[in-house]
Automatic annotation (TrEMBL):
It comes from the Bacteria. Coiled coil: none annotated. Belongs to the ABC transporter superfamily. SMART domains: AAA (SM00382). This is Dipeptide ABC transporter ATP-binding protein. PANTHER family: D,D-DIPEPTIDE TRANSPORT ATP-BINDING PROTEIN DDPF-RELATED (PTHR43776:SF7), TRANSPORT ATP-BINDING PROTEIN (PTHR43776). The lineage of its organism: Bacteria, Bacillati, Actinomycetota, Actinomycetes, Kitasatosporales. Residues 407-431 have a biased composition (Acidic residues). The keyword Magnesium does not apply. Residues 387-431 are annotated as: Disordered. It comes from Streptomyces nigra. Keywords: ATP-binding, Nucleotide-binding, Transport.
Amino acid sequence: MSETKKSDAAVPAQAPAPAEEREVLLKVEGLQKHFPIRKGVLQRQVGAVKAVDGIDFEVRKGETLGVVGESGCGKSTMGRVITRLQDPTGGSIHFEGKDITRLNTAGMRPLRRDIQMIFQDPYGSLNPRHTIGSIVSAPFRLQGVEPQGGVKKEVQRLLELVGLSPEHYNRYPHEFSGGQRQRIGIARALALKPKLVVADEPVSALDVSIQAQVVNLMDDLQEELGLTYVIIAHDLSVVRHVSDRIAVMYLGKIVELADRTSLYEAPMHPYTKALMSAVPVPDPKRRGAKSERILLRGDVPSPIAPPPGCRFHTRCWKATEVCRTVEPPLLELRPGQRVACHHPENFEDQQPQDTVLLTAAKEAAELVADEVLAESAQTSAAVAAEVLPQTGKVTKDASKEPAAEAPETDAEGSETDAEASVDAPAEGDEK
Ligand SMILES: Nc1ncnc2c1ncn2[C@@H]1O[C@H](COP(=O)(O)OP(=O)(O)O)[C@@H](O)[C@H]1O
Ligand code: SF4
Ligand SMILES: [Mg+2]
């Protein structure tokens, strides 16, 4: 992912209106998706998987909202619910100002043209027995649409649009590589000229070398066709260059939502910071530079019984008593930057009286020099994808004690080793 599509630097001369001034296309409020857990002969409900547990955000016309978080935090469920492939348990979804929360299949049919989804698995999402022509033209058949010039011509135009050959029309999915299959999936999603495209980890299954090509293709198509995207990824490096704003999810909640620059330059939620420090330094000149990463211990807790208070407190190196008992609301601490944390980074402490770290916090995270990680990682991309869930395996560098060892300093939000470590990767990508 070395190519940058959206410049981090100054706004180009003919920039579209700033994100906050554009019209809202999708508005989600208090969205919940709980999957019931049933037991016994009577199939009584004994609990629920709280996959999405009360999230609010909006997506503006023409923007790309990136959604990131570790596996299992509810990203795919969120994607399926906002496209109404699944029914929400609570909350509301408005599309172009219209309440679509409870629309049935018939009510959703006209909207199926406007809202499309691209799936993670380019192998599983294309029927192997159908030709490419049949796959890409399926939306026309389903919606009873006859494009100008006929279906075949339009499908061939779409294939060209996504960088394939019109001659691929009669070929079968097995004849294509993963990257080409994902292009076919994109062509199918774009057939009906949708307004909103929700892409669920569109490049996770692809080789690292192909990932940038597909993401860049999506970015080009957005400009050409005026699309609005929600791009889901578990890895910040994928959404980093193409997102206008980024939502960070943890256990069914949004913990931070900010424009890309703010998020990268001054992340405020400790989880965002840890996710960012797992992103490899893309600049080869900096790769040898000494930097450290924050490694979170343990896995994401179960969404069946999420931890009380702040859901991240079992893994957060800044957690204090208030974090264990009071759920932090998602507040706009800076213009355009919403954060749910009692002791945010890069900002004044919201609970300065509460400075005693929980025992768990002292063991929650560790700082590891990059060289230690380099030994066990073949490629920097592999690190980004895997480092978080595997943190327990990495040796601790005793000379670099985590910020958790200095409770007072930490609670006051001053510079710590941890902060320095995250800044390094962020800077490495500036040009
Ligand atoms: N149909 C389902 N029934 C029960 N639990 C589900 C279902 N779909 C997802 N889940 C659970 O919801 C949680 C979030 O899953 P998912 O949305 O796939 O997360 P992500 O995409 O972030 O990896 C997981 O614990 C998963 O096991
Ligand atoms: S400091 Fe507290 S509120 Fe903030 S993320 Fe950590 S545990 Fe949650
Ligand atoms: Mg998923």
